[in-house]
Fold Diketogulonate reductase-like aldo/keto reductase.
Amino acid sequence: MINNLQATTVLSNGIKMPWFGIGVFKVEEGPELVNAVKFAIKNGYRSIDTAAIYENEEGVGQAIREGIKEAGISREDLFVTSKVWNADLGYESTLAAYETSLTKLGLDYLDLYLIHWPVAGKYKEAWRALETLYKEGKVKAIGVSNFQIHHLEDVMKDAEIKPMVNQVEYHPRLTQKELQAFCQQHGIQLEAWSPLMQGQLLDNPVLQEIANKYNKSIAQVILRWDLQKGVVTIPKSTKEHRIIENSTVFDFELTKEEMVQIDGLNENHRVGPDPDNFDF
């Protein structure tokens, strides 16, 4: 059982990645962003997920510097992820994008760097750049985001290094069972973005019944389900009480029957773009 906020999974290259973190999608630069990341660090979070397209890497970097100082921890205690955006996919452009992200964050390295979307004809050259960054020791782990099975197969066909992480939309209405099985088979850690389906599941009667049993919120039940499915999860929030609530999922465990009940909510329904039909 994953039983604390600093618990980690071990990636295929031996790097430890926290099971739980905070995402900052659509959180604009400014005090709200800085405070949210600092709240998370203060309350025990050790994983922070951003991306070039979020346009908030500078604020995240500021929050990391201030947060680790206030918490009395070191940079090495954190696991920081960013992603290369579609417009920068390509070998040289991906290398340049990495350096830009690093500069904005004010960091010497990233723990994880991802290709944000599988843009046809571009992601393989970008992957070659990620391999270079990894081999040069500039990033601890490399992976992809929003890749379907056929994208992963295409990358791995020519790759020297397999992706270590695949971050995808994942929640009870989109369980991606086949994709998760494929990732497990190939040693790729699945990670969930939008685990709470942007709030669309927070009045579901099945989830409410389970939540009532444990005296938890529906959000906490979903996040616990993620962890018991072996999926790293990074819910977004800017409110300290919600950041704390989201992380209070280590003092209960869902039964096998409840896990099956939640799995049964799947409708293959996305709130984000379809990776195969995304207008880039």
